[in-house]
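Section 5.1 Outputs to date
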Amino acid sequence: MLVFADFLLNYADPKFVDAVDVTKAISVPTHYIGKDGNERIIDLVFKCPLKDGNGSLMAVIIFEHQSDSLKKIPQKLLKYISAIWEAEMKEGKPLSAPYFIVLRTEKRPHRGAYPKMSDLLPKGRDGMPLGHVPEIRYDVVDLPGWDFDKLIGGTVLRLALGMLHKMTGGNLDEFPEVLKLLSEITDEEQQIELTKELMDFVNKVFAAHNRKIDEATWNKALHPIFKGKERAMIKTIFEEREEIGEVKAGRNMVLTFLRSKFGKVPKKIEEAIRQKNDPIVLESLAAQAGRCKTLDEFAEGL
């Protein structure tokens, strides 16, 4: 929410920013945007109440980093707002005012007029589009991720935007340059906490794309900021991750043994297994699963 508020204040149309109470903005569940999540999984939706109390604004940030063309954006936005309004009408809520920002991470800024829905329609003899079509207005923000001096906003926002650029199209060798912004945070405790959250986020995103940042890369990136203190911090984070992975593997091993022997495992037993967090206990349960003759016998050991 801090990143969103900072982004809105620095990049959005001042007319919209002035009308909403950013401090009361909430992130909106993605069920507002239709049933199929493939198309909008990386986009962000926020509901911002109007200062005058007469409704709210639905701010949608569209990430466009797969193509330098905005041709498909108008149709996509029309689907967005239709889904949002349909959900609000079903819930008996007043309709929100739409505000769309397209965030581009391409190497070159967009030039010329923004595409419109009417561009996709057949044209008459006069060259004008046939039929009547609603046009959805939107703003475009070109993220100047290739030039960090041009980034505006607070430290956390610039970190997020710089990270977005590097993870979507930038060179991983330039990764340490993004993290230099951490040195702007003077509160050491806050600096360390933010770094840990940042590392966890980046590791998850890279893992989702079958990529990985190892300890050596993190050490190289964080050393100029923490001057040696980063080693203990990085080691702790990686050890915690390994421990979590070990527990998860242990639970899966127990459940695999039970399913292979008895077929379907009752929900109560599965829930009891998933509540176990000690790797040694899970190892013992796996052995028990191999020995027991019935599920009831295994359940008694829980």
